[in-house]
Amino acid sequence: MSPIALLNPRMTEQHPDLEDEQAYVDHAYDCLERSREAAWKLRDLSEADLGGTFQARFERNAFDEALLKRLADLDLGDAALVFGRIDRAAEAPGAYESFHIGRLAVADDDSEPVVVDWRAPVAEPFYRATGRDAMGLLRRRHFAVEGRNIVGLEDELFGDGHLGIGRDGIGGDGDGDEPLDGSADGPGEGLRGYSTLLTALERGRTGTLGDIVATIQGEQDEIIRSPQHGVLVVQGGPGTGKTVVALHRAAYLLYTHRFPLEDQGVLVIGPNRVFLRYIERVLPSLGESGVEQVVLADLVPGVDFQRPGETGGDSSVAARLKGADVMSDVIDRAITDRERPLPVDLELPFRTGFVRLRVAESKRIVTAARRRFRRHNAGRKYVESEVWNALADGFHDPEVGPREVRETLRGTPEMRAALDRMWPVLTPAQLLHDLFGSKALLRSAGRGVLGEAEALAMFRERSDHVDDVRWTPADIALLDDARDALGPKPGKHSELDEIRTYGHIVIDEVQDLTPMQLKMAARRSLNGAMTIVGDIAQATGPLAPDEWDDVLECLPDRKPARVIGLSVGYRIPSQIMELANQVMAVATPDLRAPRSVRLGDAPPRIVEATDAQALGATVAAEVQALLDELPNSSVGVVAPDAMIPELSGCLTDAGINHGSATRTGLDAGVTLVPISVVKGLELDGVVVVEPARIVSDQMHGMRALYVALTRSTQRLTVVHADALPAPLR
Known about the structure:
The chain is built from 27 helices and 24 strands.
């Protein structure tokens, strides 16, 4: 049962409380500005004294960092400070109390609250209250805001609805008699602030993802405020808001568990840099600028990786093999193969005679080191120490000890070669460079784990130097696994090579991660607390899972995992979703599509070019048509990666200024988006080019087409010269 909304059913009508609410919001901004001024004054005072002891300087720097963070939190830019209000019954009969809900907490000069942070417990009913469970509310009010100005109010009444108490309380114009959240079977059934929600959804996209803090729905809020322990899986179809929900959850957890999460850190892992650029403003807009947002390659320092679309990558067979969980065993065996006894006795001149290291003794030392040390590089000092001891013991001179032998022989080429054979100090890049460049090493490491043909599928010609290698995307997780197994190189700053852990990890588009990549993410979890979001129907990776259990097998299991589904699609109009669902029914027939709450202005169009030569001109014409229909909006051209250069030339010939997602993100009015990086993005108008080639070029082509068809918020056009895939005919 939805709450009965009686006030201001049409956002276009002037609400009688609008001027008073605007005055309150203006007062809130004044209080916010005074808070900023106070923070600047404190910083000026701390900068005045630059001397003192080391402890004093350290404390002053820490204080200054806290002030800078506070100033960053108070800088909202164009984001709205206040977006709602709740009225609830007070203890006295007939009394009520009001709270204005906003992006961050603001107090007046007397420290009385003016705005309540949306994450505070008192604000929870703003998102969760329903007609069946009002959570103590009498009224919930939504503000439609542009900058600092309120342009509309939308009220929802709870309870009996007869508490008319004039201005600032329950009451108002009282002339509405239709529910704001849609009819009983309408698209907005069960949604709060339906008119405000539609207003937000129908705004043009700006090239970066915006927050939804003012329009969070009940099922989304349940995820955001869910306990932080264990692994939380969020399954959501296109347009359900799973990405912004995960980011809002990160902001909520940092607010609720400021200590210890602020010190432990929160990590957000995205699928590619285009996606990271797209989401980069969400957390800062929520007052959380310290969250680390990365792609997996950022977690492996010191090596160069191929860029999307770069030639010379792994074959599909090699990519699947490198993503499989058994590669951990292959890497362990590759390390063991580098821990070897000497093939012959080592004999070196020392003083007036010789020192000798027998083969049997070298074997004993290597075997003992394997038993003692879990991580390879940590055993090097032990091996060296045992070698010096063995050499000194074999010299049969009580006045000669290991120290004298070490100082005399450690710089000789023969001694260095012997130690490097027995127990080399290795970096992950050195280990894998040697492994992939040697068929013999691949056979040995894969014995009993991989077939010979599988092992040799990963072979590639050695580069002249390890620093010259351009590692493939599938190598990222292998380098990280090797880093974990090898451990840091011995040295004064070896702790800097350790893998950092985080108090909470968010992974987006998790369905595309291989088991090795999932293990890489899990390795960074301090306590097993993770939020992973994705959609099995959009899985296009080399080892696409069929169910969430396939993903959870590779993640921490200290606490039972929870799987929550988002069932409502907010972004995609129902007409576009109907077309995409025809593809989904073929790609993943066992999954249910989300229910769209929006009816678009126009159905999707399918346009056939006269022939392949006319395809580019047809695309340019359809792009221009979208620009004419949707002024000041974002338009994307989604196509197979190989077609992007040709389409760019066609748009240029047509005089259409455009950018490329891999270079400029979505900042341009028209953007060419390769199918390989389109996942997670949204644009107002989309032209999908040559769907048959998308299906044939991609490993999971029908799923990739489903992704391409679900990027638009307003208009969709499909342009083709080749025959359409069956679901689109």
